[in-house]
Prior knowledge:
Helices cover about 35% and strands about 15% of the residues. By secondary structure, it is of the alpha+beta class. The protein has a five-stranded mixed beta sheet. A two-stranded antiparallel sheet has the order 4-11.
Amino acid sequence: MKPQQRYRYVGTPDPMTQKEAYHCEKYIKKHRGEFVRAGEYWVDVSALLSLFHLDCWNCRTVHRETCCEGGQPYAVEKGQIPVMEAELPNIAARLKEEGERKNWLEKGIWDVSQLPGTIRMRHGDCLFYQENNGKYGCAIHAYAEQTGRELHPLKPFSCQLYPIDLIETGEGILLTAVTTETSSFSRWGTDYLEHFYCASIERRKLAVHVDDTLFALDGYRPAYKWNLPLLRYLLQDQSPQVETILTERYLRVGVGI
């Protein structure tokens, strides 16, 4: 079986390219002995200890555009489609502009010219990228926070993952994070590392023109800590084992800032 057929991003029908699958296979061969096995998961401990600061509400303050602008998120799998469609009227009802609400309800969520489950763009951005109380972000995320609705089944899966990645390998699921070494096959690519402070503490240290309270250096934490609720939701019974492995390694080796 070709690598491209064996490897795939978990949670989306969007395929890996042949080149991405090739680099993923090489990475696994190189680091397989360092992974920790937890059920069906290969835990890439070193990658998951990489530092990030997801100061998302302040992203647009320090960057020209955010990761939600200028494109579409990865398509959602079939199981998420009816969940999102059922909640659309409730999310749309919270939009301030009547014309925007009408557009959502009349045209729906999906870009029918793309893979099923692909969210359409609006004004050049993801449909759900909206202003909320003076700040810009995901309308689904804001809706879940304001109503207490469970976020994980509702928000597009890939949008919840960053900076973590989950890749089906045919032998198990690689649980990793985007780093300079994994970016050649990660769904996140190199953009975050090269352009966004959230993924590069070194880049943030050099940005002396940015207010210290924005993407503050003392706010950087290991990748897995930003995703603990989602990891627990996904890993279920395997979650305590994986968390223990990551926490013990973090406490033992530490991550300097």
